[in-house]
Amino acid sequence: xxxxxxxxxxxxxxxxxxxxxxxxxxxxxxxxxxxxxxxxxxxxxxxxxxxxxxxxxxxxxxxxxxxxxxxxxxxxxxxxxxxxxxx
Length: 87
Known about the structure:
elongated, alpha+beta, 16% strand
């Protein structure tokens, strides 16, 4: 194992990568695959979270858009079952 190697992170550069259109497109693709696997009433979203605790990174997630989807999620945990579709 090498020793004496130091890496200095450029926070602005890291934030630019985490917020990039390419990162957002990849997150959207994976979230849409999960939403599609979950079925009707689920939708994919991507947003850029601001603030130091999140490093201003883009985040993708799937939400319920209808009462029927909320019920299916509550009773059958369909999002947990669909998460492998996003891999």
